[in-house]
Design brief:
Number of helices: 8
Strand order of the largest sheet: 7-4-6-5-9-8
CATH class of the largest domain: Alpha Beta
Distance between the termini: 34 Å
Structural class: alpha/beta
Helix content: 10-25%
Number of strands: 28
CATH superfamily of the largest domain: MoaB/Mog-like domain
């Protein structure tokens, strides 16, 4: 039997088999957390005009220089200028325009005096304090210049990026498509949520945890239900699942008499990249391709299924959507309880990470309790995975460990 591959090698094999997918145009409001598939050049300056940074009076600074409470500068008000309208007058010596935040600066004015430093009537204003020349102005193009590149391909669109695109009039944007991910559970012992006869069977939780993970990774889950343990039933569901961009099966990949998933995949033209990984939980995970479709056969135990998804499927889905940061960013914490494991197997324990109470202290992490691969609640309680290398057999309380946030 071929030796189990290491986790890092398995991740490389997966990512070598997937590429960013098709591109589609979506409304800007629907592009949040998507990855842009085009470079964007600004067609105009932002802001398009010099404009006021606050409510006040647009003036010539020489008219108000030296103004004080005892000796105010008196000016004639030509116009009240709200944001969104263009000025109708030129500011000449001895005059001012009352201006609102965001309104274009009128010709002739070089400074805005904030309204708090004035006393005015409808036709006149007294200035009691003069700011420095050029104060309270936003310069044309100070945010973005026409012709400037403001977004490059493979940028993840956060709310700030949506705002930048909106500011240059980009109502639609080209993004990478979200991959459709078909999810198939197998086994006569598995009952789906609407099964009329669930007695003596295990409720199908894997399809729904996997669907949640697919959604969290940006994909579109397609639930194929539960296939009975016959070659015909499994082959039919696999054929249906291969119409999606990714196929995930859960269970049925071990050596039991009725584990037909591997045989049915081989019959469909499956090219194997690996079929076991030196890790716990989740050693019996298989990955390969049928044509251009990546196929992941995850273990039936629910925790093993979720952990192998996290390590192998999630990075693949992110790459297919154009992301460049594919893995969770690891950090370190102090272990609060001793743990032991088998040497030669990289182990991922479910943990609860707690931030330090004092500045400069290291975060702490403790396991969620029993770590059996069938104890799904241990994943519900966890907010991280404790990543223990192959060569380590035992860790004591206080040892530093690497954690992966969930």
């Amino acid at each position: 039997m071929k030796q189990a591959v290491r986790v890092a090698e398995a991740q490389t094999l997966v990512l070598d088999c997937v590429e960013p997918g098709a591109i589609e145009k979506v409304a800007l409001v629907d592009a949040l957390h998507r990855v842009i598939a085009e470079d964007v050049i600004a067609p105009r300056d932002i802001p398009p005009h010099d404009n006021s940074a606050m409510d006040g009076y647009a003036v010539q600074h020489r008219d108000v220089k030296g103004a004080t409470q005892d000796k105010p500068a008196g000016l004639r008000v030509l116009q009240v200028l709200p944001a969104g309208l263009m000025p109708e007058h030129v500011v000449e010596p001895g005059t001012a325009i009352k201006i609102m935040t965001g309104a274009p600066m009128p010709q002739g004015a070089d400074t805005v005096v904030q309204v708090e430093h004035t006393n005015a009537s409808d036709t006149d204003v007294d200035i009691y304090r003069a700011p420095k020349v050029g104060s309270n102005l936003r310069q044309r193009g100070e945010d973005i210049h026409a012709g400037e590149g403001i977004m490059v391909q493979q940028t993840r669109l956060r709310p700030a990026e949506l705002g930048v695109l909106a500011s240059v009039g980009k109502s639609q944007v080209m993004v990478y498509q979200r991959p459709r991910v078909a999810i198939l559970a197998t086994g006569d012992e598995i009952a789906d949520l609407d099964d009329p006869e669930p007695h003596g069977k295990i409720i199908n939780s894997n399809s729904y945890t996997i669907a949640g993970q697919v959604l969290e990774a940006g994909g579109v889950p397609v639930l194929l239900g539960v296939a009975r343990d016959t070659r015909e039933a499994i082959s039919q569901r696999i054929a249906s699942g291969l119409q999606a961009e990714v196929l995930i099966t859960s269970g049925g990949v071990s050596a039991g008499d009725f584990d037909y998933v591997r045989d049915c995949l081989d019959a469909a033209g499956f090219v194997t990249q690996f079929f076991t990984v030196a890790m716990r939980p989740g050693s019996p995970v298989t990955f390969g391709t049928v044509g251009q479709v990546p196929v992941f056969s995850l273990p039936g135990n629910p925790v093993a299924s979720m952990v192998t998804f996290e390590l192998f499927v999630r990075p693949a889905l992110l790459k297919m959507q154009g992301y460049t940061e594919l893995f969770r960013k690891p950090s370190q914490a102090a272990l609060e309880n001793a743990v032991s494991k088998r040497q030669g197997v990289r182990t991922f324990l479910r943990g609860v990470l707690q931030l330090p109470k004092r500045l400069g202290e290291m975060p702490t992490v403790t396991t969620t309790g029993p770590q059996g691969s069938g104890i799904l609640r241990s994943m519900s309680l966890a907010n991280c995975l404790i990543d223990i290398p192959e060569e380590v057999e035992r860790l004591q309380s206080g040892d530093t460990v690497q954690i992966l946030p969930l």
